Amino acid sequence: MGIKNFVYSVLDWITFKKGISRNINGFKIRFTPQWSRYFPSDYEKENYACLKQQLKTGDQVIDIGAHIGLFSVVCSQLVGNEGKIVCFEPTPGTYKLLQQTLKLNHCENVIPVQAAVSNKEGKATFYISTENEGNNSNSLVGNNKLQKMEGYDVQLKTIDSIVAEYSIRPNLIKVDVEGAELDTLKGGLNTFSGSKPKIILGLHPEAIKRKGDSLEQIWDLLVNASFEIYLAVTYEDEKSGAKLSKEDFCRRELLFDVICL
Fold first, then answer.
1. Which of 4, 31, 135, 195 is most buried (most C-beta within 10 Å)?
2. Assigned domain for 167 exists
3. pLDDT in tens, 165-201
4. What is the DSSP letter of 10?
């Protein structure tokens, strides 16, 4: 056992396996000792301020790309026992961490699912980093020359099939899928027209291009589904909440987050 793992084991024992409490953007959240310092206290503060504005008691949420569970835990607290969250994380190691985080925070209104979300049900190859089990850039998009990746089979769901399977009418959907955004959105067209959820969408232009998709295709899909698109996070001289034009949206080359209303 390495020194770090020994320290984490001791901390786990000292805390009676109840985790270490953090205050992130005003939310008290428990993590396992190993992952307790992963997020800064102001992590994506504007996205989480948006959650406070958009969610209320009893709301329902789909969290696609749940990672180790921060977003789902915050949603769990905001919607209360009357609400419901279904969250998806395909990576085996990260999924175990997600389960641990949900258990530590007593998130009985959250259903974790080990699957990816796309435009069809079935199976596909999912690519994971071999360098870090908590890596948040694992994706259905391969050919990432910047990291050592390996592929394995993963179950695929669609937003529309999730709505039917879990009897959920989502008020909000979060999508963070590292380049597979277009396919994920394609699988939710019936939900968008029926439930009219808000969407918090992380966009990864380089990975989108590597997959063979484009920001223009994503813009057209969202606009055709009657969404208006706003910046979720401030970027340089552009403030969060600014409404985007197609030109503003499609010219971007770096990761950016939007909220679709």
1. 31
2. yes
3. 999 999 999 999 999 999 999 999 999 999 999 999 9
4. H
